[in-house]
Amino acid sequence: xxxxxxxxxxxxxxxxxxxxxxxxLIQPVDEHxxxxxDKEVEIIQSLSDKPFSxxxxxxxxxxxxxxxxxxxxxxxxxxFGDGAAETLAFVTGKLLPILQERRINTSHCLLGGYxxxxxxxxxxxxQTGMFAGIxxxxxxxxxxxxxxxxxxxxxxxxxxxxSLGDKEEKAKNPVMAQVGNAIRRQEQxxxxxxxxxxxxxxxxxxxxxxxxxxxxxxxxxxxNMIG
Length: 227
Known about the structure:
Layout: E1 4-8, E2 11-16, E3 23-29, H1 31-47, E4 52-58, H2 62-65, H3 84-101, E5 109-114, H4 116-125, E6 133-137, H5 146-152, E7 159-165, H6 179-192, E8 196-202, H7 210-224
Parallel strand pairs: 3-4, 3-5, 5-6, 6-7, 7-8
Antiparallel strand pairs: 1-2, 2-4
Helix pairs in contact: 1-7
């Protein structure tokens, strides 16, 4: 399956469409993710016989467009912004309606992302019930004040898949090294709030097999989603 590339309100979107798709997978991506999208789709197809469409949209300013509030730099010099709300509005208010106009089934819509896009995906679970499931693969749950927010709010999505590499909590950066304890706490909070959640551990650090980790998350949702 090769993508159709279209522009939606200024964002480049990559559409892997099947006419009889039961599930719609939405994923924000960067340049590295784009290079691996074909392989990710192939892996999903190899792991599941359920028909799906995948729509990826290009994120230009990763640190701004995917984070829910401003925060100082954790690595490098680029700080984090508060563009997640605008990005979510693009997905729910612009991208999905256009897909519906093209008669693409959006009734079982799954949102997933890797790294900061994984944080965006799980944050979106607290904002709207429009998604049937969430994939947060190696999500940046070390993000400042994230766990406080997750504790104080209630997710509106019933099924959430979390994953992390087993070497990620051994990062030299002291903030990012908190990711292991943070994701364990995230899973616990989700289950305490009645969410059908799982945390899967993968071999390797943050930069290993991102396309495989995303594919496994989407397939788990298609097989185990509630509702």
